[in-house]
Amino acid sequence: MADPRTMTQGAIGASMGDTGAMSQQQRPDTPTRSRVPPEIPEDVDASGIEKAAGDVTLPLRVQWSAPLRTYDLTDRRDRIRVYEQVLREGTADDVRRFIDVDELLALWDDLYLPAHVRAAWRDWLARHRGARV
Q1: In degrees rounded to 5, what are phi and psi of residue 70?
Q2: What's the predicted TM-score (pTM) here?
Q3: In terms of residue numbers, what domain contains 122?
Q4: Using CA atoms, how far apart are residues 53 and 28, in angstroms rounded to an integer?
Q5: pLDDT of the residue at 20
Q6: Are the C-beta atoms of 13 and 20 separated by less than 8 Å?
Q7: Which of 13, 23, 65, 125 is deepest in the core (most CB within 10 A)?
Q8: Residues of the chain with pLDDT under 70
Q9: Structurally, how many domains does the chain consist of?
């Protein structure tokens, strides 16, 4: 058997009796959640939309990969975590409820976001706020 350290993943699978077929999750042309465009409602910045404050629990559709927990939006670290999750996983209604655009701008440099999410929001912020982030 060849040295697995020098083999490609497909060759390793074939040498182990695998047919070499990739699963749906591994195919580069298969859409995954990580490539789904983020929800950015045009009215997220409207003055009449009440924003979440204080202690919040994110919906399961947003915080699906860990046990539900409560976040304190007065705590910067919790606020960053909420923004990251909602910007990646939230519906338009979640974004309207949890994302304050002024706060998004204040947190921008500290948010860990996939490139496609960051790019989509960068475009929205440029169009709607004239912000260059």
Answers
A1: -95, 135
A2: 0.73
A3: 31-129
A4: 39
A5: 47
A6: yes
A7: 125
A8: 1-34
A9: 2
